[in-house]
Amino acid sequence: MTTFDSTKLPLKDILRDVVDGKIQLPDFQRGWVWDDEHVRSLLVSLGRSFPVGAVMLLETGGPVRFQVRPVENVPKDKLAAPERLILDGQQRLTTLTQVLKLSGPVQTRTEKGKPIERYYYIHIPTALAGTDRLDDAIIAVDASRQQRSDFGRKVDLDLSTRELECQQLYFPCSEIFEAMNWLQDLYKFNPDGVQEFFNFKAAVLDAYNEYQIPLIVLKKETSKEAVCLVFEKVNTGGVPLSVFELITASYAADGYNLRDDWFGSEERQVISRQQKLAKEPLLSAVESTDFLQTITLLHTLEKRRADLAEGKSGKAVSPVSAKRASVLELPLTAYLEWAKPVEQGFIRAAKFLRQECLTAVRDLPYRTQLPPLAAVMAMIGDNERWREPRIYQKLARWYWCGVLGELYGGAVETRIANDVEELLNWIEADAEPPRTISDATFQIDRLASLSSRLSAAYKGINVLVLREGAKDFFWKANIRDLEADEVALDIHHIFPRDWCEKQGIASRLYDSIINKTPISYKANRMIGGTAPSQYLGKLQAHEQVQLDDIEMNALLASHCIPVEALRADDFAAFYELRQKELLLLIEKTMGKQSAAE
Q: What range(s) does the GmrSD restriction endonucleases N-terminal domain occupy (predicted)?
């Protein structure tokens, strides 16, 4: 079965349907943005019978329903029910509707974006001088139908009355499809120009009246996912259409304002769900699509469990899904059912991550792990049940296997769906652990290659060091407590960069996470570029620190730092021993041994 038809229709017929309301816009389309120069250029192309591209429409009346709106400035009174919606060609059709079909001024803008109002005219004598002069013949005047100079003090061209138009032979573009109306006034005000008008009609106006636009019409059976994909393919120059916008337009057809629910509305006194989540700093990264994906996970899980309870098998059993197509098919009833539990699930997820020493969005290894975690938290229910040691340990092991196994980068929809079902079964029925746990491996040599703070595993290992109770070299306090008090912290070299370079140590070694740890800005300034044996003595002797060797050694050990090698300035021994310490920490967290390359 073909999903679309292609044809051609006269431009005047398409614009008539736009004004009548038979062709409208889906509410996810952005507003009209073309400037005055674009408008004039389009009018020239049509007058010279140049191609201006196809228009893509979607038939209405199918299973996909959207909130709709008329094209800009089309009067909303007595509009017909839309038969087709504009997917591609909005800017062109809106421009031509305003210029050729509506009587008021065109609401456009300058090249710099300043809003202006314009009327468009064709100077008949210039247009008759040759098709290549049409660009000069088409002019724009302001809302008073005048052109002015000298900062508006001097009127260069006045077309404010029909008589002035006829006397000067400036034909209004809004009359192109109704040219005989203007001709009657021309007989009255400038009969000498009648023959020139007929020449103009044959040479120019007929081109507009006979112009045909190629149409691609998607059939009403087209799925919502296909509409979204097609829209993005044909609007490559614009802002990509998000799943949220498409679902917003779909829910609006049923009278529900999803945009208000997510972003809030002072006018309607709706509190933003986004703001509710953002009260937890880690959730400030959650996007509307993450929220919708989490609800979709629970909706499809509920359907799957119902199918299994009925004894269905094979293809008859609905899958748990986080894929875009499933999100796009999320019914409003499911959103209303799950929105509040999912909101609470995200909040519990943030509390869990805080317990694991994650406090800032920049330290979050994967945002993509938030939806499955929130979905599981929502299903566990009860604000504090996730804290039960048996449940908490399973959540933590799954989470860190995902991070340290680096399994949540790229396309992860299938993993997310599997993890939600399998993690819940593991928690609720002691079934087999999720595949993320069995799939996760940490290569022994991976530590040496981790040097970028953008890497998920890099972030994860840094957080693990904090979770083990690392204390600051200067403040002596637990670093996680210092973070809570907003003390300036970062990840810094243990053997300073300058010292390493002077010793001829390769950057791939000294820049590895093996030679880095989280400490305060104050401690890092005191370390400077000197050897560890020197900066440790300086730190210990500082009047605000005052630590003996035993106390300082314990502090260093809280960072998994091999003390003797550090004090001996032995980088090679330090590197080997700290690598082993970090690998032991990783293995304990993942519940499995590291793998050799």
A: 12-251
| 257 domain residue, yes or no | no
User: Three-state secondary structure along 248-306?
Assistant: HHHHHCCCCCHHHHHHCECCCCECCHHHHHHCCHHHHHCCHHHHHHHHHHHHHHHHHHH
Which pTM was predicted? 0.75
CA distance 397 to 356: 11
125 touches 196 (CB < 8 A):
yes
Q: Count how many domains the chain has.
A: 3
Beta strands 4-10 and 170-172, pairing class: unpaired
Q: Is 452 found in the same domain as 435?
A: no
Q: If you search the block for the tokens 């769900």, which residue do you land on? A: 273
Q: What is the DSSP letter of 291?
A: H
Position 237 scores a pLDDT of 52
The domain boundary residue, chosen from 439, 469, 498: 439
Q: Is the separation of the CB atoms in 203 and 195 below 8 Å?
A: no
What is d(CA 551, CA 572) in angstroms, rounded to the nearest whole number?
A: 24
DSSP per-residue letters across 76-143 = -TTPPPPSEEEEE-HHHHHHHHHHHT-SS-EEEE-TT--EEEEEEEEEHHHHTT-GGGHHHHEEEE-T
pLDDT digits (tens, 9 = 90+) for 243-271: 888 888 888 888 888 989 999 877 777 78
Q: Is the dihedral of CA 577, 581, 583, 587 positive or negative?
A: positive
Looking at per-residue pLDDT, the higher value among 238 and 445 belongs to 445
Domain assignment present for residue 371? The answer is yes
- Main-chain phi, psi angles of 517, to 5 degrees: -160, 155
Which residue range(s) make up the domain with 578? 446-590
Sequence-ordered alpha helix ranges (H) in 109-223: 124-127, 134-137, 162-168, 179-189, 194-200, 206-210
Alpha-carbon distance of 479 to 70, in angstroms, equals: 58
- Whether residue 500 contacts residue 435, with contact meaning beta carbons closer than 8 Å, is answered with no
Residue 487's pLDDT is what? 60
Q: Do residues 379 and 502 both lie within one domain?
A: no
DSSP summary character for residue 279 = T
Residue 491: per-residue pLDDT:
84
Over 60: is that where the pLDDT of 480 sits?
yes
Question: Could you identify the residue written with the tokens 């943005």?
Answer: 33
Contact 456, 364 (CB under 8 A): no
Query: Is residue 555 situated within a structural domain?
Result: yes
For the record, the structure tokens of 50 come out as: 């140049």
Cβ proximity of 320 and 435 under 8 Å: no
pLDDT of 2 reads: 62
Q: Is residue 386 part of a domain?
A: yes
For residue 459, CA distances in Å to 358, 453, 512, 516, 591 come to 10, 6, 13, 12, 19
- Residue 73's region, left for phi above 0, alpha for psi from -120 to 50, else beta, is left
Residues 94 and 142 in one domain: yes
Confidence (pLDDT) at 354: 93
Tell whether 373 and 466 lie within a shared domain.
no
Higher pLDDT, 264 or 189: 189
191, 136, 185: which is closest to 159 by C-alpha? 185
Tell me the C-alpha distance between 7 and 54, whole Å. Answer: 10
Under the banding of pLDDT at 50, 70 and 90, the label for residue 544 is confident
